[in-house]
Amino acid sequence: MKILKVAAAAAMTFALATAPAMADDKPVVGLVMKSLANEFFKNMLEGANAHEAKRGDYVLKAVGMQSEADIETQINAVENFITQGVDAIVIAPADSRALVPPLKRAMEAGIVVINFDVALDEKAKEENGVELAFVGPDNRGGAKLAGDALAQKLGKGGKVVIIEGNPGADNAHQRKMGFEDSIKEGGLVLVESRTAHWETEEANTVATNILTANPDIQGIMAANDSMAIGVVKALESAGRSKDIMVVGFDNIPAVSPMLSDGRLLATVDQFGQEMAANAIDIALDVLAGSPKPQGWVRTPVTLVTGEK
Amino acid sequence: MNVEATGLAQTAFTGRKKLSFKSVLREAGIGLALVALVIIFSVTTEHFLTANNITNILTQVTINLVLAVGMTFVILIGGIDLSVGSLLALCAVVAGKAISLDVGVPMAISLAVLAAVLAGTVCGLLNGAISAFWALPSFIITLGMLNVARGAALHISDARTIYSFPSEFNAFGSMTLYGIPVVFLVALMLALLAWFVLTRTVFGRLLYGLGNSEEAVRLAGHSVFWCKVAAFTICGFTAGIAAIIYMARLNISSPIAGVGFELNAIAAVIIGGTSLSGGRGSVLGTLLGAFIIGVLANGLILLGLSDFMRQMITGVVIIVAVILDHYRAKYTRN
Where does the record say this protein resides (chain B) (predicted)? Predict the structure, then answer.
């Protein structure tokens, strides 16, 4: 541990020494995010900008991508940050495997790397000989909170449907597993589990069709709020809002009226706005000489319901 | 210049085309495929042929039908419009901003509809004018517009979902008339209008002529430029209408709405027998094509097939439909 500390300190002096032109000698933090077209990351960026202004002791350089699957852009962003000689890279990886080698290069260049939001793949880290902690929410545990709220309302034997996120996306997978945990524990019956690719219109169509095939379902678990909105609209059109309950994930502003009038039973907030800011804090602590974080640093997730 | 083109240039002057046996046969094939799908799903699933599900299918094909009608105009002249999905998002966001204005419900709704239609029409006009003026492939111009419109939608909305529209507006999205969704009736009227324009007006016949031979249209003394601009403008206009339907149905405007919708619209047009190289096809075919896609999506979920199987089968149906069309085209030519 001590060696690491010395190495980090050495890396910092090195970075400072080689980049004397950096403004006010403040450490530079490169923030690499996923799609800024996504409300969640947009909020996160705003949180990070506010954090930079508030702390005032570091310089933030943020990069987002055009779409969720734009792995190439993220890899380029990491490489550009290495070239620029930033002090720390704080990254929400678009792919949990593909980003490991470039991040390894960054660490070898003496840059402090903090992985947040989506965890890098354990096996890929092992294969590349990278040791890196993860700072982020428990998507599985969060989904279980929402799933449990539904299970509590329905009781044993309640028939439910899961609307999944993008197949292959890690957070989609984690949330699905969280819902399945609730189903198992609460004695619910899973009738169907289908993807609507995080999208409102598709969720609306999929939910309508599932409802046609299974008119007796009682609850629907959507892996994000955009899809939950589509589901709620599907139930309204079918005149089933009263007897079928819906839970979502993310707590986006658009669901707040649905929460207060009960069309949405519950959603989950993982405080995206603070997530990047927290990760930056950890990076700055390490730069200032604190030990590197280990394993999984969990960030808070909370259940949000309409009841005040 | 081939004989068919000359014929079409001539029909441009008479402005009419007789309903021949061959042209009926062209759509009959697609119609039969649709009937076959309906029979298969009616037999294999319990809920397919119920009044409720039919209402659902009509709602579910509506947006794609509207976009596909516009796309038919563009594909008929041998062009393509990849921007309609993004245009839908841009129109929805602009309309979402307008409908949130505090000017009274009727005024806000009117402004929203106007804003969506205007935004779509202007972008379509730009697509057409740029690709026609510099004689550039519409594929690349509309690919550019895809990015411009998506970026603009995200910029205007600050990447946030716009929500809480007036309940009157929301009600329109789920209103039905004898079990037929009103939004579908809007789409159907649009399709009828398009059918009339394409088959019963000089302008429509010119578009067919343009798809076969620009030279023929030019020699006949018509402006190729303005015909092309009009086709793309109509396509943009339909994106505006589709945006309003999207908003009424879901009660939100999302800047990330409509990703990939252009591909579904193109698929509906091509399955419907319109040739990708232009000059051949019909709105009736497009209507049937949109229904094949919609019925397939609905029926495969009712069957309980997995997501991945569903995606594969949809792909296979598109390929088979185009192969069938190849033979049909060969047969009708001989």
Answer: Cell membrane
